[in-house]
Amino acid sequence: MPEDRTTGGRAGNLPPETRSFVGRGHELAWLDAVLDPDDGHGRPVTLVGPGGVGKTRLALRAARLAAHHYPDGVWLVELSPLRARGLVGFAVVEALRLHDRSTRPVAEVLCAWLRDKRLLLVLDSCEHVLPDCAGLVRAVLAAAPGVRVLATSRESLGLGSELRAEVDPLPVRTDCLAPPGGPDGTGGDPHGDALDLFAQRAGEAAPGFALDASTADAVAAVCRRLDGMPLAIELAAARLGDLTLERLDERLRESLPSPLDLLAAEPGRGELRHRTLRTAIGWSHELCAPLERLLWARLSVFAGGFDATAAEEVCSGGPLPAALIAGLLERLVEQSIVLRHRTQEDRYQLLDSVREFGGDWLRALGEERALRLRHLDHYRRLAARGCAEWNTGSQVLWCERTLADHANLRAAMDCALSERDTAVSLCAAADIGFLWRHCGHLRDAQHCLDQVLTADPQPGPDCVRALWARGAVALLQGDLDGAARWAAVCATAAREQGEPVAVVAAAYLTGSHLLLTGRLAEAVAVLDAVEPLPVRDDWLGAAQLQVRLALSLAHQLSGDHTRAREVADEVRDESARRGECWAGAFADCFVAEADLADGDLLAAVPNARAALVGHSLLHNTLGVAFTLDVLASAVVAVGDGRRAARLLAIGQRVWELVGRAQMQSPDLMAARLDRERRVRRKIGEEAYATAYEEGLGMSYERGVAYAVSGAPSR
């Protein structure tokens, strides 16, 4: 089967096209030329135009068509959910799945990682973070000659090297009607694109609708009145489920001034299009029932996607009871005001222009602050439940929920900080920071925890939890000096609190710092002295298991493999009993290491693979990197040196995503070098170099899948 040029089967995160693409043949041809990395210009390309003109869909279509040029993938970075400055780099790191755990400036991390890559970055909706975008793009393109940037914005980035293209509305003509679906898959006649779009969306709202001689004039009139703006056309076409085409045309004539009237009043064409779209969205708003309008306004507080439960909890109240929200939400979906999420059927989202309109109405109603606080309360409760149930069989579900609602958790945290209520922001940061630490968002966790902990928070359980999370973040970042400072402060706060399990949790930070700095005997003494208490279901229970994990690793690195296995088996049994996965996956890995030390090779490989599966379920990149090193040792021990070399290379790529190889631990780095030497001796330098290069060429997903599988080497 020939390769699909719109995807290429390559790395990347472009969402699937859920609707047909209409028109834009000339624009796509131009973009195909300028996005060819072999032309040597290396300049960023920005699609500029008002909201609703179709910049995002055009960019995504062009990116799919250009994917075959970029072996390292095409990556979409959605910037519209960002509510605070300084987060563009965070969003790019997140989109690229770098899970960087270092403390270096994010721009430096990105430039270093991208330096030898050939990939396309699509920065969508830059207008509200233009300075940050411009600075990052300038730095990335200077450091990484194989990277190209395609941006969408209502304004240009302001870079001297920028290639800027105005995205115009779709043309409207009826004299050259042609059936949709031209030979290039981009639509029919280029002069009938607006009509083609209307016809396709109308057919979805009113099955059986056809664009023909009897409907073409009315459709053209509608499209002209909407100035060919794609979003306005889609909103109008969605109304054919309730209105006839004639009534739709009539209602638009009553509600909208003609384009000629607007042109006479407005000298700027861009302002005209903005006003046309706003008026068209306003017309759709007028056709909504009162409670539909109220829900629309209240939904504007969400960042990124949301589910029906969140909508009910945040948006209900007053004249809008929770019991009605699910039905009203479906009505807004039918009218194309709310969209179903591209990849998750049970989640929803608003387009930027539609959300902005709703936000204006929310402010006009005087409800904006109240709804933002309700949004904050909902996600605070969500994070608190996640921490309370983390050490249970619900752990994987909480990880998935944390990742799905990352933008909303970030917005809630921004709201808490802006309210300047130190007790609320401390509690929110402690819970959200804990979840982010365990789900791979270390930079976000560091950012919010640093802001609340520098404000001299009141002592108590929330403070201890925040200090523990901050110290745990520093450990995974390889920031060993920082980890020592946070460990000392957390230990003092835990003793003052007087909660025995909090004292146990603090010992994890102290013992792990000693372990990672090579002071193994001291680490064993601290960790082994911890009082054995019943393991809890909440975040403290997770810390209890992590104390035992650190003790197992300290024994392993000290050469006491028997004791290392005993402690790892304890954790593995407790993890299995609870159904938790985070600690259990590390325990599987440590048991695999003990198997290797004991010469039980038949057990080492499956135990290491089980660890990989567990880490993958929780998107734990550090755990994956750590386990790949162990699995490589097990695989070479059973005689498959080529596979081991590939695994070492895959592991190296994952350590690059993590940021600091082997967490800067001298013992772990020495173990890695010893593994490499053993594989080289087994298969020779030439075979090692070939297999290693093959492993480096695998994407993260493909590499992990290869590691988990038992397919023989070739």
TrEMBL record:
Where in this chain does the record put each NB-ARC domain? 42-155
What is the species of this protein? Streptomyces fructofermentans
Q: Which Gene Ontology molecular function entries are recorded, alphabetically?
A: ADP binding
The protein in question is named NB-ARC domain-containing protein
